[in-house]
Design goal:
This protein has helices at residues 4-17, 232-261, 272-284, 297-313, 319-334, and strands at residues 32-33, 39-42, 45-49, 55-60, 63-70, 77-83, 86-93, 95-103, 106-114, 120-124, 130-136, 142-146, 162-163, 169-170, 175-177, 182-183, 208-209, 217-218, 339-341, 347-350, 354-355, 362-371, 378-386, 391-396, 405-407, 413-416. By secondary structure, it is α+β, with helices and mostly antiparallel strands. It has a twelve-stranded antiparallel β-sheet with strand order 1-2-3-4-5-6-7-8-9-10-11-12, with no helix packed on it. Strands 19, 20, 21, 22, 23, 24, 25 and 26 form an eight-stranded antiparallel β-sheet that branches. The longest helix is centred in the middle third of the chain and has 30 residues, at 232-261.
């Protein structure tokens, strides 16, 4: 089979979107990164970080800035900014709310006003009068600005994105250049964020948000705040799932064909590992997108290991992909508190612990689901735990008479009731 039409299409895609090529921003010639891929200096601006990768200082010409950061929030919060001897305090609620500046002459409070995407469009003073107005292009350039108040929180200001003096935007994970409409360093999550390592908002900033530098989010994510924003692990987990879903949506047929036949649609023989990856793609493509919900960070880590194991196993059919699809569905329905893989190869999913109705020896009860991917067998039961976490009774969900299997504080079986 001739391959030139596919090669021609690939060339067009590469020319149009740059695939994974590195951008050439204006500040690139003077950009320096450290061994942890953190931007040290660019365009006359020098950055300082702590051991947790929070940016805690910056110099730009004669201006010196020190940041006091709260690292314990879902998103790191700048609590104080000390710039050239002037201290600004930042107050948070559902995102950044106020900037308070105390000087010898008095106290000045600025209130942030955002658009639906979380970008600052106005600042107002203590009197309620609007002092600053800002507008942006689709890719984040400031196209209009009136007012002279000094604030670093403009585009995606609600989420703590900094607008720096060199024109770059600091988005925690990496820096974004709005003049080029691309990030200046590769996506730290790799291909899980998409085929283009430097793309902003998946090339669609009208429909998508990209305030963290870890992959595009849809407009429903504007409800994110410091109280419910995803952790970095959760962002990368969602980005991984999005990457699988995008590929599966574009080529579900190709993935299924490769998984079943051991060769791609052009007739090229693939390796067992590539065949296993195709099986994963085919399986995930069967999952309705609406059913993909945010999982806890621990479950995300375990699920990532499961994905890698599935890809490495290289089974010669779509069976592994179908098992992964079932695993994700079981996790969504029963595994709100995570899961673990047993030595037997079965998976056990744990639901929320419901507190005991009356105070006493028992802490509460939870629903547990066990699934064997080899046989497809499933069983469900309720566990009652004491305050030490020891299972004290088990009631199988059989649909018949309720039978409780009782255990003592040491985990020894003592009988039924």
């Amino acid at each position: 089979m001739r391959r030139w039409p596919f090669i021609f299409i690939a060339l067009l895609v590469t020319l149009a979107f740059g695939c994974v090529s590195e951008p050439k921003p204006v500040v690139k010639d003077t950009a320096h990164f450290d061994a942890r891929n953190r931007l040290l200096s660019a365009g006359g601006v020098t950055n300082v970080y702590d051991a947790l990768n929070n940016r805690i200082g910056q110099t730009a010409g004669t201006n010196t800035t020190v940041y006091v950061v709260n690292p314990n929030a879902q998103l790191p919060q700048v609590l104080m900014r000390i710039k050239n001897g002037v201290t600004n305090y930042y107050v948070y609620g559902g995102g950044l709310l106020y900037q308070v500046t105390e000087t010898a002459a008095g106290t000045n409070t600025l209130t942030y006003h955002y658009d639906y995407r979380g970008s600052t469009i106005a600042l107002s003073s203590d009197s309620g009068l609007v002092t600053d107005r800002i507008e942006y292009s689709a890719y984040g350039l400031t196209t209009y600005r009136v007012g002279t108040n000094d604030t670093p929180f403009l585009l995606y200001g609600r989420f703590g994105v900094h607008s720096d003096a060199n024109g770059l935007l600091y988005m925690q994970a990496r820096y974004y250049n709005p003049y080029l409409c691309r990030f200046i360093s590769a996506d730290p999550s790799g291909f899980s964020g998409g085929l283009n390592f430097y793309a902003y908002a998946n090339g669609n900033p009208i429909s998508n948000l990209d305030p963290f530098g870890l992959g595009a989010l849809n407009e429903s994510s504007v409800d994110l705040t410091w109280f419910n924003a995803p952790t970095v692990g959760q962002q990368q987990y969602e980005s991984i799932l999005s990457g699988f879903l995008n590929v599966a949506t574009l080529g579900a047929y190709n993935s299924a064909y490769t998984a079943i036949n051991g060769q791609d649609t052009s007739g090229n023989i693939v390796t067992p590992r590539e065949q296993g990856i195709a099986a994963v793609m085919a399986g995930v493509s069967l999952i309705p997108v609406g059913n993909i919900e945010r999982a806890g960070s621990e479950a995300a880590v375990e699920l990532g290991a499961t994905l890698a194991k599935a890809a490495e196993s290289g089974e010669s059919s779509a069976l592994q992909g179908a098992r992964l699809s079932e695993h994700l569905m079981q996790l969504e329905k029963y595994g709100s508190q995570g899961f673990k893989e047993l030595e037997s190869g079965s998976f056990r999913y744990y639901g929320d612990l419901k507190a005991a109705s009356t105070p006493g020896e028992m802490s509460g009860a939870r629903l547990v689901r066990e699934w064997n991917p080899e046989t497809g067998a499933k069983r469900t039961w309720y566990e009652t735990l004491d305050h030490s976490g020891t299972v004290r009774s088990v009631r199988p969900e059989t649909g018949g008479p309720k039978v409780h299997y009782i255990f003592d504080a040491n985990g020894n079986y003592t009988g039924t009731r």
